Amino acid sequence: MTKIITVEEHFELDPSQSAPQGKQETKVDPKGPQANIVDQYLHNFDKRLEYMDKYKIDMQVLSNPGGPQQAGSDKQAIASCRQINDLLSSEIKKHPTRFAGLAALPVNVPDAAAQELERAVTQLGINGAIIGGLANDHFLDEPQYFPIFEMAAKLDVPIYLHPGMVREAERKMLYHSPSYSDQVGDMISLAGWGWHMEQGIQMLHLILSGIFDKLPNLKLVSGHWGEFVPYFLERLDEFTGMTPTHLDRKFSEYYRNNVYVTASGMFTQPQMNLALAEMRPDHVLWAEDFPFLRREDQVANFLEQAPIKQDVREKIGHGNAEKLFKLN
């Protein structure tokens, strides 16, 4: 049986122990109708380990990409991220063969975010960072966020670009329609389509900004089989090649060299085939998106039964994650 390391697996602070947050925009709950079950796993690490044992998951790379990083004042965001990362570090130390982690960063305060990334990696033993969505409606290629990526490159740790909550105005303009219910529109605007498209655009911004020319060893991770981007690599090369971009290489060369994609629980063979064809086996990772998705037996069985060579299965199942996140 192939060793399984899943790399987009989430946790939250117990709400009773969380730092106070400021007022936030009304949002759609991404936890869905089984929110109570999701919350149990988000806050209970022993229950999480029971699930992992039952479904043959050797290790999870844990992260919290949610609201505390951008909620409230700058001071509150910094305090929340430190609290999240301290808890994460403590759980990794309790179970070093079962858990690794990605740091939460106060991205609205970029210099503090870079400092927190350094603390998380050098003092807490965390393996990289995660950023969820836009930074208060700003894409991350804007120059004020460069210190975060510069620190990741300096430390040689990856940053996982996770979808964030699509803004209410965007949901209503792009996804709501009088021809179907608002509930359908909200679901399409989030997990069905919208937040994946937004995160794909985030990646476009970063690559076209020339960030990989400035930081050639920077490594980014993109979930959900690359948030649409791998499906358009040849077309992006064609049409960005028609106008000066000031990039040293083709768009696809940066993407294939510096970006890793994960399944995020989307265990479907056509998407896996395309990701492997576009990215090569060395840049594909396994992930369940737990506990928002709980694929149970599929986590191990889909990979074990996939029509791929055993060496490719081993890379996807654990080898690439061990190398990228330095898990050995």
From TrEMBL:
Gene3D superfamilies: Metal-dependent hydrolases. Keywords: Lyase. Residues 12-33 are annotated as: Disordered. It holds the Pfam family Amidohydro_2. Residues 48-327 form the Amidohydrolase-related domain. InterPro entries: ACMSD (IPR032465), Amidohydro-rel (IPR006680), Metal_Hydrolase (IPR032466). This is Amidohydrolase family protein.
